[in-house]
UniProtKB/TrEMBL annotation:
The keyword Ion transport does not apply. It comes from the Bacteria. SUPFAM superfamilies: (Trans)glycosidases, Beta-D-glucan exohydrolase, C-terminal domain. Pfam families: Fn3-like, Glyco_hydro_3, Glyco_hydro_3_C. This is Glycoside hydrolase family 3 C-terminal domain-containing protein. Residues 745-815 form the Fibronectin type III-like domain. Keywords: Hydrolase, Signal. GO terms for molecular function: hydrolase activity. The keyword Transmembrane helix does not apply. InterPro entries: Cellulose_Degrad_GH3, Fn3-like, GH, Glyco_hydro_3_C, Glyco_hydro_3_C_sf, Glyco_hydro_3_N, Glyco_hydro_3_N_sf, Ig-like_fold. Residues 1-25 form the signal peptide.
Length: 827
């Protein structure tokens, strides 16, 4: 097997099963890039967490702490002076850990404990003949705790948290015992939890986004960081700052929202929660946050991961830059992964404009850039040879390679030796890596307490937090006739049907800890525990998530015919790890249709035809097109990929133990043919007529969702109706609970620029407030409005500015349900 083709992306695309003895390597995706100048005036924004959660921004760091990208400490410079070229190159290679069964004859040193220890000791050899290179002590590993590849590969003894910590300690002792004594940097995935077996599995990206609560999401990622650091992980990657603007794209499962404001608020709360107050990375509760994938990998042509991105610079800055600014310039995230696709024909892995001009100069990024597709520079004919690609990557600013590719191994050494790459560029990258290790305190203490790892990972407070997040992520889109919540004293029999009704693993999402080593109950198990003997639960699977087998329909009909209500749990499948052929969502699982897969809609139709009131519960990591269910079923609940406590959260929501307070963080279309379709359309699209065969409007708009009571919005007012271009005011609106039970309203503030020099979206979200209101109570919700944060645009000269004029501020309960409006003048 060609070692240059072994990478995380290649693994995902491998056509193998969990019991395979080998996997076919697939070429990695093209390096992404975009033409972004640094000439525009930077946006002056407040702390993203403070926008929604009211949390104060932690400072980026103290003056006495070494800057990763600035002048290094004496220790780092002394180490650099002692290092050979091979020593330096080893520090820049932190390979993705793959099981030996997938590696074949590759020199990748991750497949066995013996290979890993050899790399740490400096005994790994790459290249051939005169170009052979014995690497100095290795820089670290990526994903070492994820031995099973999230369930793809069976391993005889998955390591529990104590053993994960002991494994990391053993490798650190070996590293510290080498002549240079440089500690290892251990990186792992962290989309919605640490990946070591036993770690807490929180809801997946869109589920967390659906909470509309950045403060809660910050708490989730603080717990993720705590668990990761406890077992010896120092940086968590795949923390997504990109927007989810195309539901076809499988990797969109990691993202939080289609909206830049909401995503920026989430990122702004998350980074300080992970990196600690003042970015104190020496704390045993902190990890480096690696935001992905910079500057973007979607929306890509056709929704395909391997395709290019075509977007103008003004559109990029107007829509996509805000979360990155929140993460880097404001919160100080210290790691990112360079995009792998091409944008406007430019390759990010080889683009100084992106990785230096935009990232470091404009966004003040002060950390380490990791890359996973330097090979793409050759594939896209940006570089003619591996040595040219090495030079382009180093000059652009790729510091670390994850792919174990010759480009950053023996070919980089040859390029330096032959003078084709300035060794100063190599030193710059190594200096950044060593400084990050120093900021983490690893030179003083690279070890972790195995006892603490056992206590912290999946502790009771973290399990409770996973349950709270799952509860708050539930989005009720339809509840005709008040069918929900079900009442245990009136419902005697429930027919529980569907492929996701009794499958706890399918609730967990992608990149999850496997095996869980703790309970992850299915909806069936959770309902049975909740209801006990009071309500009979009759289960029928009905069908699979994929495939055409309808042999289970008869049992499903029989269960529904003899029940008071039918709950049909359908949706997507993410279990089985990267290599599962049955996954329908996740990395490299893009789709051309947004309809339910297999015969799941037919199952819904069969159950509905019995005449039994039917609730559809949809387990999904993307926006799906559900026109039949919306039109015909009385109740529709979006459960997302809700994590380890998702089964309980669904059960409690159905029976009213908790209220569905989630709102759609993405737009649900009627059909894939409407794409691209986000809520923030410009007037030409917002005012467009219908298609010949369907309306042009969304099926379910961004921000939609309902609870078990009703609200009235009234009394909108401003402290000041006229402010300057650097001014601010406050908007107030009264919210009254007009129902008979307590409930939660998610109040949303949208802004319209009434007249501008460029075409802008009709409305843009600029505020969210989630308020619990007692039945009959009236409360006042207040939103700060800051011109330089909320009223900006990117003009034709690519400057981010506030233009004078009038703005309409609208408050409502969804992007298509705006109840109160008021005008603000800016001069």
């Amino acid at each position: 097997m060609d070692q240059a083709k072994i990478s995380r992306r290649a693994l995902v695309g491998a056509a193998a099963t969990a019991t395979a003895t080998a996997a076919a390597a697939a070429a990695t995706a093209a390096a992404a890039a975009a033409a972004v100048t640094t000439a525009a005036v930077p946006v002056v924004t407040a702390a993203a967490a403070a926008r929604v959660a009211g949390a104060a921004r932690a400072p980026r760091g103290t003056a006495d702490r070494p800057r990763t990208g600035g002048s290094a400490s004496r220790r780092v410079e002394a180490l650099l002076a002692r290092m050979t070229t091979a020593d330096k190159i080893a520090q820049l290679n932190i390979p993705v850990c793959l099981p030996q069964v997938l590696l074949g004859d590759s020199t990748n040193p991750t497949g066995t404990a013996e290979h890993r220890e050899a790399y740490v000791r400096g005994r790994t050899v790459v290249g051939t003949g005169a170009g052979q290179l014995r690497l100095g002590p290795g820089g670290g590993f990526f994903g070492l705790v994820n031995q099973t590849l999230s369930g793809s590969i069976e391993v005889p003894h998955p390591l529990p948290p104590r053993e994960q910590a002991e494994q990391h300690n053993r490798l650190q002792r070996l590293a510290r015992g080498t002549p240079l004594g440089v500690p290892l940097l251990q990186i792992s995935e962290g989309t919605h939890g640490s990946l070591g077996p036993g770690a807490t599995i929180f809801p997946e990206g869109l589920a967390l986004g659906a909470t509309f609560d950045p403060g809660l999401i910050g708490q989730v990622y603080a717990a993720v960081a705590r668990e990761a650091r406890a077992v010896g992980i120092h940086a968590l990657s795949t923390v997504t700052a990109e927007l989810n603007r195309d539901p076809r794209y499988g990797r969109g499962v990691w993202a939080f929202s289609e909206d830049p404001y909401l995503t920026a608020a989430v990122i702004g709360a998350m980074v300080p929660a992970m990196q600690g107050a003042g970015n104190d990375l020496t704390s045993d509760e902190s990890v480096v946050t690696s935001l992905v994938t910079f500057p973007m990998e979607s929306p890509d042509v056709g929704g395909l991961e391997t395709s290019s991105i075509e977007i103008g610079e003004r559109a990029f800055r107007q829509t996509h830059l805000e979360p990155w600014r929140a993460g880097f310039a404001e919160a100080g995230a210290l790691m990112t992964e360079a995009s792998e696709q091409t944008i406007d024909g430019l390759a990010v892995h080889g683009s100084p404009k992106y990785l230096t001009g935009l990232l470091r100069d404009e966004l003040r990024f002060d950390g380490v850039v990791i890359g996973n597709d330097l090979r793409g520079l050759v594939r896209e004919h940006v570089a003619g040879t591996a040595q040219e690609a090495a030079g382009l990557g180093l000059r652009a600013g790729v510091d670390v390679s994850l792919a174990w590719d010759e480009i950053y191994l023996d070919q980089l050494a040859a390029a330096v030796r032959e003078g084709r790459v300035d060794e100063a560029l190599l030193d710059r990258a190594v200096r950044r890596v060593l400084t990050l290790k120093e900021r983490l305190g690893l030179f003083e203490n690279p070890y972790v307490d195995a006892d603490r790892a056992e206590r912290v990972v999946n502790c009771a407070p973290h399990r409770a937090l996973a349950l709270r997040a799952a509860r708050e992520s539930m989005v009720l889109l339809k509840n005709e006739g008040g069918l929900l919540p079900l009442a245990a004293d009136r419902v005697r029999t429930v027919a529980l049907i569907g492929p996701n009704a009794d499958d706890g693993l399918n609730l967990l999402g992608e990149y999850n800890a496997y095996p869980a080593l703790h309970e992850t109950p299915s909806v069936r198990e959770a309902l049975t525990r909740l209801l006990g003997d009071r309500v009979q639960v009759r289960y029928a699977r009905g069908c699979d998530v994929t495939g055409a087998d309808t042999s289970g329909f008869a049992a499903a009909r029989a269960a529904a015919e003899n029940a008071d209500v039918a709950v049909v749990v359908v949706g997507e499948q993410t279990k089985g790890g990267y290599l599962s052929p049955d996954r329908t969502d996740g990395e490299l699982k893009d789709v051309a249709s947004l309809a339910l897969t297999g015969v799941q809609q037919q199952l819904l139709e069969e159950v509905h035809a019995t005449g039994t009131p039917t609730v559809a519960v949809v387990v999904t990591g993307r926006a799906l097109a559900l026109p039949w269910a919306t039109a015909h079923l009385p109740a529709l609940l979006i459960a997302w990929l809700p994590g380890e406590a998702g089964g309980r959260a669904v059960a409690e929501t159905l029976f009213g133990r908790t209220e569905p307070t989630g709102r759609l963080p993405v737009t649900f279309p009627r059909d894939v043919g409407q794409l691209p379709l986000t809520y923030d359309q410009k007037p030409a699209r917002a005012d467009a007529g219908d298609y010949v065969d369907m309306p042009s409007t969304p099926l379910h708009a961004f921000g939609s969702g309902r609870g078990y009571t009703t609200f009235r919005h009234s009394g909108i007012r401003l402290d000041d109706t006229h402010i300057s271009r650097d001014g601010r005011t406050r908007l107030h609106v009264d919210i009254t609970n007009t129902g008979e039970r307590d409930g939660t309203e998610v109040v949303q503030l949208y802004v319209t620029d009434d007249l501008a020099t460029v075409s802008l979206p009709r409305i843009r979200l600029r505020g969210v407030a989630k308020r619990r209101v007692a039945a009959g109570e009236r409360v006042t919700v207040t939103f700060p409005v800051t011109a330089a944060r909320d009223l900006t645009l990117v003009d034709e000269r690519l400057r981010t500015v506030v233009e004078p004029g009038t703005f309409t501020l609208s408050v409502g309960s969804a992007s298509d349900r705006l109840h109160q409006r008021i005008s603000l003048t800016v001069s």
